[in-house]
Specification:
This protein has 97 residues and is mainly beta. It has 1 helix and 7 strands; from the N terminus they run E-E-H-E-E-E-E-E.
């Protein structure tokens, strides 16, 4: 399978998504008011995305689509030991808590 860029992708290196504290959704804007749909989250992942969590930045390692909900997974430190990692996820707007 090939992933083709679109005209609006020219010269775009990555897209930024935002994580809100104590929330599971991926957000499109820094104010964290616009949730991202599964199809858009998948497109971002395929073309390059950076997750912003406060002042930390992460590169996702996987994307999964299950029952219409998109989930990106990224690796973060455990907060205690810099060499110990834990997996974190962000979900698309279709996810219902």
């Amino acid at each position: 399978m090939k992933i083709y860029e679109k005209a609006n992708d020219v010269h775009v290196r990555a897209t930024v998504v935002y994580k809100k504290a104590a929330d599971v959704y991926a957000y499109l804007n820094p104010e964290k008011t616009v949730k991202i749909s599964a199809s858009v989250l998948k497109d971002f992942f395929e073309k390059g995305v950076i997750v912003i969590d406060g002042v930390k930045e992460y590169a996702p390692v996987s994307f999964n689509l299950t029952t219409g909900v998109g989930t990106i997974t990224y690796v973060e430190t455990d907060g205690v030991t810099p060499t110990t990692a834990v997996l974190a996820t962000l979900k698309s707007s279709e996810y219902v808590v």
